[in-house]
Amino acid sequence: MGCFGKKQLGEFRTVYCNHNVPSGQQGVVVADTHKGYADNVVVTSKYKYWNFLPKNLFEQFRRVANFYFLCIVIVQFSIIDRTPVSPATSLLPLVFVIAVTAVKQFYEDLLRKRADREVNNRDAIVIKGREEKNIYSKDIKVGDIVKILNNEEIPCDLVVLSSSEEDGTCNIMTANLDGETNLKIRSSLQETSKLLLPEDLSQLVAVVECDHPEYDMYKYNGRMHIHPKQGGKAQTHSLSITNLLLRGAKIKNTEHVYGLAVYTGKETKMALNQKEKTYKFSTIEKKMNVYLLFFLVLLLIIAAIYTGLKFQWDETDAGKAYYLGKTPDFDAVEVVVNLLSFLILFNYIIPISLYVTIELQKFCGAQFFAWDMELYHEPTDEPARANTSDLVEELGQIEYVFSDKTGTLTENDMQFRQCSIDGNKYLEVGDKLKSPDSTNDKGVDKSSLSDEKMKNFFIALALCHTVQADEVKPEDDPVGTDTTDGSIDDRTTPVTVYTYQASSPDEKALCEAAARYGVVFRGKNGDFMELEVCGKPERYRILHTLEFDSTRKRMSIILEKEDNGQILMLCKGAESHVVNRCVRGPSQETLDHIDGYAEEGLRTLAITSRHISRHNYVKIDEQLTSASQAIGDREEQLARVFDEVEKDLDLLGATAVEDRLQDGVKETIVSLREAGIKVWVLTGDKQETAVNISHSCGHIKHGMEVMFVTQRRTGEAASEALTECEHTLTSQEGVVDGEEKEFALVVDGSTLAHILPDEAVVDQLIKVSRQCVAVLCCRMSPLQKAQVVKLVKTCKDKPITLAIGDGANDCSMIQEANVGCGIMGKEGRQAVRCSDYAFHRFRYLKRVLLVHGHYYYTRLANTVQYFFYKNIVFMLPQVLFQTVSGYSSLPLYAGVFLTCYNIFFSSLPILFYGIFEKDLKMKTLHENPVLYKDIAKNERLSWKSFAIWFLYGIWHGLVIYYGVLRLYGTSSFLPHQLGYGLFSFGVFTFTLVVLITNFKMALMVHHWTWFMHFFIWGSIFFYLIFILVLCAFVWPWPWLNDIYAMDIDLDLYNIIYMLFNASSFWFALILISVVALLPDILFTVLLKAWAPSELDRCQKCIEVKFSKGKYKVKFRGYESFENDPTSLETV
């Protein structure tokens, strides 16, 4: 393809171990084969030193406001002779904003560079020749054999060749990758596990063929061709994720490991997973861009009107006055120049510092989120985490919450409770299994496990899993045994105890249950699984493991029993995907038991087995081996083989495991509902289990009518069911027993699969679900969860959605939702890594939305409105001044005021307002969810709210301009007015603009802190000092004359002192400020009195009653007590 083309990738990646070429391939140049592979230099920084400036400027000028001001500056320089104000008045604020953002981004990138340097310069050990050599990590190449020591971090993605363990296994911890702290086992091929010395490994002739680099950390397809030293046919062995060590993981409890580098640097799975997520735009950001567009259009309209009025004025007698010189000709060039002049003059109505202010406020908001001790989880010593600061305000706009069940609403702490064995139902009572139908049943325990079918059931539980067993060091455990005479024998017996680690809490619970009843899993030894069955050891050789996947919803393991060579397949999974594959066993009785367990809210699995003849196994082995050695379509081939193998099963029974609800789940769901947020539960559990949990957690309330759209096999059937739901909603809506009738909807994954392809049926589903208080979707695949979220998010009303989950199967819906929240649970940290915000418990969601969401949204919404307001106040006098200056483009304000207004005199108060403002106390917001409705639907940035702020700006600008103009038009200002002219008029007007906009800021504040006092009154004080110094001297420096037209600005000399000497100036400041702000105060008071919102009522109806040092807060039936009455300062 040449240097400009994309490199053509082959079917798979080829790696030569230690760069050795097999015999018969002498023509292969390893360096050429490996040439296209990335080096091991880690680069997470965004910029290089040489490209920081151009790249950063390009990114910043992609923003509408920044690009707009850049255009204005260019226009000012292009018509430098005709520009009404110096280009510096636009250039300096633009440079300031760009510089602040650039410095922030440069510092962040500098930290990333330092981290990269530390990683790249770590020591690494590789085999060169026949010995080990130390190099830098960045110098590792694909094909190198790398040695990693215990507790060292893995520097690149490696295929395990051997380890200090005889069987070639090693333990790794992947906390840096997925947050899981439990150890995982990785293993080498048996053929390479005996290569323990550098000289042996250096002579290994092997070629690895594997996938091209991809981001999925749980997938690796490859094969290794091992060539004999003496020549001959190579042996081919399949490689999977169990043979791969990922960069970022750590070696644990293993002296050393040798591995072959297959992916390095930016091609490692860790690096590929560090790519930036799709940027999500918040509601406020979208609305802000709409308002910017509105003001740009308004600016163009005003400039066009004034251009026309200027040419009209030029034709009047006043416009043809002799001292004005010759009137320019009316032509296209003159029209454009005048249009641009007015655009330049009025461009300050666009708030240039808005973006940088919003960014700083969001950044601080994200820090407050992480610092909130109410979201801190003490048992794990983990605070909440904000993975992005871009969406903090979106937490205040949520309309739909989509929640996973297991690990999100529940503890994900599984406990074995009941089981069905050979059609018989058993309960666990203490450490015994008892039949619920027999009152005289003494039960079965580890000492009385004799029934073969029961024994086979527990053997299946102890073998069909991916659990790791750790042997606890034997200790003398006093065991009291009854003697024949009734006394207690105090002899001590050494007891071996095993602890289990598993990625699935279900598997751990089942393994522990089997151990309680005498079938103890003792761990793996090479290819063998070791059991202790009623005190007798048994060994099973692992032939194949058919891993679980969400499509099959089952997993299987094929074993060979060591003592008799019998081949056995054990399979467990969801009854809907397992029982129908059984040809023997009490299917109906077991299904009835499973339905009963589900109604109790228990999680169920069907357990099956299959005896395989040696002849059939040979065929199965060939199929599985062939499919497992495929690279490009391994998953598809394995799926076909799995489907063939997992059939003709014998049903052994079923298990029922309890996963109890987390604390506070019910209260949280009730609060979210009161806040106007609809909660959908999306789970992979069967219908009965999901419905039971929904009832117990308050998702489906008592008295709700539950409608079912389940088990529909066609789109037409699903449509008919939804039509029936519509009829039910229409016929039964109304009030029952004084309360409005409420409905819940239950949909399953199989029916949803028929709904989604048909747009008409999808519309029916949306219509029905919008009228339901609760929606439950069961038997959902991960993809379907994301599809449901997208379905709601993209419907006509475009509601703001939040998805919350704890497992890898929730990642798709978390990323699909407007806001994604991850629960730091027990299923790894994949959901946390791909989320926007993460915390430990579902109950924290209440505080996240009702408190943090409320604060962030109100702060930022008011910030946006205030920014546009203050610039209207600033620019309106400038616009009106043109009507009395012959539309001459003459500026009212001195250039220095145009430069400094948005940066120094009005930006700091609103910045800290957006960080610290609290319109209500946290406790009040937390205890009154109804307040959340007040800010729903982007209420604070609605066109109605915008119109009110717009009118405030217009009124204040009119009062300031005409107030000052009226004063100047009378003889009441000073006896000697000859010294007062344009520049004193401009200073007077600008002083009022600074005062009134800061007074308006003070009226907005509910929560007064020393920050707010300092920056509001400090801004006014700073302006006073600034104007006193500015007007005190005739500034002599040449550069000021170049930047600001000093022949004009020199007229500011002594202006403020003359104004201060006039008593009418001080009177006018007070009078105009009062007249400007009085309607704001009256409107606010009357609005709160006549049409109060819930928030207004809460602020108004708080009654402080001192009684023994306490006060009582009453609000619409809610009551709360505090010991500190001074904490009402926020009201």
TrEMBL record:
<dbReference type="InterPro" id="IPR036412">
    <property type="entry name" value="HAD-like_sf"/>
</dbReference>
<dbReference type="Pfam" id="PF00122">
    <property type="entry name" value="E1-E2_ATPase"/>
</dbReference>
<feature type="binding site">
    <location>
        <position position="404"/>
    </location>
    <ligand>
        <name>ATP</name>
    </ligand>
</feature>
<keyword id="KW-0479">Metal-binding</keyword>
<dbReference type="InterPro" id="IPR023298">
    <property type="entry name" value="ATPase_P-typ_TM_dom_sf"/>
</dbReference>
<feature type="binding site">
    <location>
        <position position="683"/>
    </location>
    <ligand>
        <name>ATP</name>
    </ligand>
</feature>
<feature type="binding site">
    <location>
        <position position="404"/>
    </location>
    <ligand>
        <name>Mg(2+)</name>
    </ligand>
</feature>
<dbReference type="GO" id="GO:0005886">
    <property type="term" value="C:plasma membrane"/>
</dbReference>
<dbReference type="InterPro" id="IPR018303">
    <property type="entry name" value="ATPase_P-typ_P_site"/>
</dbReference>
<feature type="binding site">
    <location>
        <position position="809"/>
    </location>
    <ligand>
        <name>ATP</name>
    </ligand>
</feature>
<dbReference type="GO" id="GO:0005524">
    <property type="term" value="F:ATP binding"/>
</dbReference>
<dbReference type="InterPro" id="IPR032631">
    <property type="entry name" value="P-type_ATPase_N"/>
</dbReference>
<feature type="transmembrane region" description="Helical">
    <location>
        <begin position="946"/>
        <end position="965"/>
    </location>
</feature>
<feature type="domain" description="P-type ATPase N-terminal">
    <location>
        <begin position="26"/>
        <end position="89"/>
    </location>
</feature>
<feature type="transmembrane region" description="Helical">
    <location>
        <begin position="867"/>
        <end position="887"/>
    </location>
</feature>
<dbReference type="Pfam" id="PF13246">
    <property type="entry name" value="Cation_ATPase"/>
</dbReference>
<dbReference type="Pfam" id="PF16212">
    <property type="entry name" value="PhoLip_ATPase_C"/>
</dbReference>
<dbReference type="InterPro" id="IPR023214">
    <property type="entry name" value="HAD_sf"/>
</dbReference>
<dbReference type="InterPro" id="IPR008250">
    <property type="entry name" value="ATPase_P-typ_transduc_dom_A_sf"/>
</dbReference>
<feature type="transmembrane region" description="Helical">
    <location>
        <begin position="64"/>
        <end position="80"/>
    </location>
</feature>
<feature type="transmembrane region" description="Helical">
    <location>
        <begin position="977"/>
        <end position="999"/>
    </location>
</feature>
<keyword id="KW-0067">ATP-binding</keyword>
<feature type="transmembrane region" description="Helical">
    <location>
        <begin position="893"/>
        <end position="916"/>
    </location>
</feature>
<feature type="binding site">
    <location>
        <position position="548"/>
    </location>
    <ligand>
        <name>ATP</name>
    </ligand>
</feature>
<feature type="binding site">
    <location>
        <position position="405"/>
    </location>
    <ligand>
        <name>ATP</name>
    </ligand>
</feature>
<dbReference type="InterPro" id="IPR023299">
    <property type="entry name" value="ATPase_P-typ_cyto_dom_N"/>
</dbReference>
<feature type="binding site">
    <location>
        <position position="507"/>
    </location>
    <ligand>
        <name>ATP</name>
    </ligand>
</feature>
<dbReference type="Pfam" id="PF16209">
    <property type="entry name" value="PhoLip_ATPase_N"/>
</dbReference>
<keyword id="KW-1278">Translocase</keyword>
<feature type="domain" description="P-type ATPase A">
    <location>
        <begin position="120"/>
        <end position="182"/>
    </location>
</feature>
<dbReference type="GO" id="GO:0045332">
    <property type="term" value="P:phospholipid translocation"/>
</dbReference>
<keyword id="KW-0472">Membrane</keyword>
<feature type="binding site">
    <location>
        <position position="684"/>
    </location>
    <ligand>
        <name>ATP</name>
    </ligand>
</feature>
<feature type="binding site">
    <location>
        <position position="806"/>
    </location>
    <ligand>
        <name>Mg(2+)</name>
    </ligand>
</feature>
<feature type="transmembrane region" description="Helical">
    <location>
        <begin position="1055"/>
        <end position="1078"/>
    </location>
</feature>
<dbReference type="GO" id="GO:0140326">
    <property type="term" value="F:ATPase-coupled intramembrane lipid transporter activity"/>
</dbReference>
<comment type="similarity">
    <text>Belongs to the cation transport ATPase (P-type) (TC 3.A.3) family. Type IV subfamily.</text>
</comment>
<dbReference type="InterPro" id="IPR001757">
    <property type="entry name" value="P_typ_ATPase"/>
</dbReference>
<feature type="binding site">
    <location>
        <position position="785"/>
    </location>
    <ligand>
        <name>ATP</name>
    </ligand>
</feature>
<feature type="transmembrane region" description="Helical">
    <location>
        <begin position="86"/>
        <end position="107"/>
    </location>
</feature>
<feature type="region of interest" description="Disordered">
    <location>
        <begin position="472"/>
        <end position="491"/>
    </location>
</feature>
<dbReference type="GO" id="GO:0005783">
    <property type="term" value="C:endoplasmic reticulum"/>
</dbReference>
